[in-house]
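Exercise 7. Given the components listed, write out the predicted structure of the assembled complex. Treat all entries as one system.
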Amino acid sequence: MTKSELVQRLLAAHPELHVQDLERLVNVVFEEITHTLMEGGRVELRGFGAFSVRERKARQGRNPRTGASVEVPSKRVPFFKCGKELRERVNK
Amino acid sequence: MYKPKAVTRADIAEAVYHEVGLTRKSAADLVETLLEEVSRTLTKGETVKISGFGNFAVRQKRERIGRNPKTGEEVPITPRKVVVFRASHILKDRVDEGV
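Answer.
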């Protein structure tokens, strides 16, 4: 399912609404999550899951072509942990 | 260290209410419907692709041998399905840069 298919499904559930509003809604939801993570925050959606930021330490990497040792700087990466209810549902 | 409160459904619904021409009630209902549609799709084993954000997919895990960390006893971990999220490069870059 893509973002536009998700919009179509929301429209099917709410035919009284405008497709433009539903597109904005979907964008706002994912933008809110993104902005929270950019600030280093956490998003908790009970039953669905939680988004957070994890710190990856700097490490010594290697250029696979030349074999030269390079410093890979530390970075922050988005992380999603599936919620209990969703985890149980996908296993049914 | 100061730990801000996590953002919840209610906060997201509030943002939707402010940015889209919907009532508070309608905004909250739609956030719920959105999460339910994503969950339902994953439950069917289908991948959910949100461009600019990332992909949610279901992966099948085989049985493996685990260990009870308390007793050290070996226990089989049954085969199961897990939801995995792969962040898009756009999201990864934005989170790493924090701007």
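Discussion: Strands of chain A lie at 43-45, 49-56, 59-62, 69-72, 75-82. DSSP finds three helices and five strands in chain A.
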